[in-house]
Amino acid sequence: MKLVRAVLALEVLTILLWFTRIRNVWSDDTTSSATRFVATALGLGFIAVATVALVAAWRLRTSPSGHRGAVMVIAGFAIGSSLYWLVRVIQIAGRDHALGFIIVHTLLGIAVVALSSLVLQRLRPDVTTLEPSTV
């Protein structure tokens, strides 16, 4: 259950961040159509993977053995989220943004990386059973 809660927390944060990004990009009249499309596709992609990862975590809870694919989906979601935010924070810091904008996005990135780390920690198998630590 600990794994499910960790994945759920990362999914909720992912949904909040991406729906906010999609809303912001569509409400800004100066944003190009290409930027809107890319932001929307990326956001919906992250939300879809987050949802699949949550379902995978739930399946591991009920039957931890034999679900290598579920483990890969969850780990991929956590690692992919972390990598995205590491790159994004560097991009934001390197551009001409206000300090507050940089700080807020850095904190969001730290939150995603922290939750992703928690997911990966909970996903790590118990060395005595070689099963994910889902209880």
Features:
mainly alpha; 4 helices; about 140 residues
Structure description:
The protein is an all-alpha fold and 135 residues long. It has one domain. The chain is 80% helix and 0% strand. The protein contains 4 helices and no strands. Helix 1 runs antiparallel to helix 2. The longest helix has 30 residues. The mean pLDDT is 90.
As a whole number of angstroms, the C-alpha radius of gyration is: 17 Å
- Output the number of helix runs: 4
Chain-averaged pLDDT: 90
Structural class: mainly alpha
Describe the sheet with the most strands.
Answer: none
Cα-to-Cα separation, first versus last residue: 5 Å
Flag low-confidence runs.
Answer: none
Helix content: over 70%
Number of strands: 0
Measured by DSSP, the beta-strand proportion falls in: under 5%
Order of helices and strands: HHHH
